[in-house]
Amino acid sequence: MGAFINGAGTISPQSTHNNEVLKNGFMTLAGNRFSCIEPDYSQFIDVKQIRRMSRIIKMGVVAAQMASRDAEIDNPDAIIVGTAFGCLEDTNSFLSKLVQYKEDMLSPTAFIHSTHNTIAAQVAIIFRCHGYNSTYVHKGISFESALMDAVLLLEEGASKNVLVGGVDEITETGFNIMNRLGLYKDDEKINSDNLLHLKTKGTVAGEGATFFSVSDTRTNKSIAEIKYVRTFSFNTLDEVITETKKIFSENSIIKPDMLIAGFNGDEKDDKLTNEFINKIGCSDIATGYKHLCGEYGTASAFGLWMATTILKEKRVPVAFKLDGASGKIIENILLYNHHGDIHHSLILVTSC
Amino acid sequence: MGTSVYVAHVGIISPIGNNLAENLQAFEEHRSGVDRAQFLKTRHDAEFPLAEVKFTNEELANKYDLDIGLSRTILLSYAAAAEALAPFDRKQINEFRTGFISASTVGGMDKTESFFEEYINDSQSGDLKLVMHHDCGKPTDYVCNKLGLKGFVTTISTACSSSANAIMLGARMIKSGQLDIVVAGGVDALTRFTLNGFNTLMIVDREQSRPLDQTRVGLNLGEGAAYVVLMSEHAAKVFAPNILCKISGYCNTNDSFHQTALSDDGKGPFLAMQGALQMSGLLPSDISYINMHGTGTQNNDQAEGKAVEKIFHPNYPKLSSTKSFTGHTLGASGAIEAVFSSMAINKGLIFPNFTFNQPIDGLHIKPETTFQKNVSVNHVLSNSFGFGGNCTSLIFSKI
What we know:
The complex is a heterodimer of chains A (352) and B (399). With 352 residues, chain A is an alpha/beta fold. Chain A is built from twelve helices and ten strands. Chain A has helices at 20-24, 47-52, 55-71, 88-100, 108-114, 118-126, 142-156, 172-180, 237-250, 267-279, 290-293, 299-313; strands at residues 4-11, 78-82, 132-136, 161-168, 208-215, 224-233, 258-261, 286-288, 332-339, 343-351. Chain A is globular, with a radius of gyration of 19 Å. Chain B has 399 residues and is of the alpha/beta class. Helix content of chain B is 34%, strand content 18%. Chain B is built from 14 helices and twelve strands. Chain B has a ten-stranded mixed sheet with strand order 5-4-6-7-1-8-12-11-9-10, with helices on both faces. In chain B, strands 2-3 form a two-stranded antiparallel sheet. In chain B, strand 9, helix 12 and strand 10 form a beta-alpha-beta unit.
């Protein structure tokens, strides 16, 4: 018994949906807004359905199908989604019209699709899944909450195969408001190569849809095993570090082979990430991922996709050109992320 | 299979009362919270009655010593969560592994609506302080921090079953041995967004709603918050000599049929009730009372009624929809009804429908019409279903 990742699908600002990224590596993205490279949705969904779906729903539903195809499991018995902001475009559309037309002449479509659980619901309909279904909406730990729930379901024996994912979208309005709140850098020369080295205030906006097909038993498709997933809120960094050391000893690890951390380029956020990494003695094996996908509530799902991709071959694909992991065998990876020093998350994954 | 999960205490603020005692008093007096809109600023105020918490934001903020600029969702959430935790020493609580699991469908939408009044004319205008409350996690964080809780924190949003799922997750985390004490529940405030949204679906009643009645035409929207304090056996021994009840079953399913409608035969609701019964090891005949989801819409009451019949026919337990008193409080409804269910067991109560005249054609279910006390209530089934096909049933049992 355990929690085994048997397949993954990710739509991101990189060429991940077609796996070109494995051959050609990560592209350099410019600006403070990294938008997804989207697949041809008609390969996955009925054209009539596509027309009714907003971008985040299409991305979510198709990433779920990609994970399911990758794992060769088309009958998941549970669906769990994390999304920090949910279906922002539909929300914006209904809200704008509501204000503009003073609560008159509204149509239901945008409202129907604006609820946070729309993606999980659409995935359930596509897979005809009557099993467990939930949606987590808690800021930067939305995906980790979903993943933790998935592992718990498998441990309980309540489910055999779970589709679990993280989805968030950039919208004009969302970007504009968060930009006004000072979340993003306004440096014109910003790009994915220099983001983590500038040491200035702000990050870049990102988005993505990443799903995993996870089972309670190891199969011949198993890529990685989730050994641990947990979030810590309103805890001190020292409490998180104590827990991290406990995880290492419980899993007979002196030091993980690689640490994938949520560096986002913001001076203050990264200072805390560095403090964590230094205190657990992992600064020489740490690498980031948000410079490749941008910062968003469920970016850690992209981080986990990167970890599973590495664990599949037990080494970093040459094309990835990542710091801290040149050519050596990688059998376990710790992922660390924090949200504004309030929420921390740890995920430990090992190769199969 | 793991520890039992106990309900140690509860907190509630709803359209029929600002705490537990006031809520029970309203049932005693058979007083519905559905009334002409007084607090939500909407052009539909004369058209649709609402079930509002009878305070302005300012009054709520003053009452609970909170910042007046907070979203109504935060104010309501704090009121209920503070009542739930009131009997317990916070420092002592934090020596255990704790969790705060909340739920919401609107988050700080009330403030975002105000922000948009200016924003739609000029994307550089609008007070940013208003929009910082937008996301559903914000009330959870604010209240958690204010109450001095830490550890495991998250927020669930599965439409109208949101807070039932928060309670279910809390119970699962205690059962699996990961946590000892969890404050679980949910909150939603009335907003123009939800009122207009439900109005476009043409499922809002222009009068007091009539759930489970043949003449029903829709729901009344409501607002509120409720939380239950869940404890493991071990924690309950330390903190709560007077446990209210235990959670003996739960099940989350999906109807997998339509984004906003349940299938005619209520497959999702049927599977949720059946799963919760299976987990509890109880027979349908063991259930003393069903707190129905009972929104008052054609679709929900038909589908839920069919599913109830499939499980219970021909021996029906007492049942009712307390939404005829509280309105449909959306993300808060599962927790509000969990509070009523806990009280049904602890105090031997049966909650009524506000009105009932005519059974639904082709169905045999008939809701109770009077508030009953000193009844032997051993097991209560509480249903919460929602958009997106999300269905959750919880079973509360006598210890």
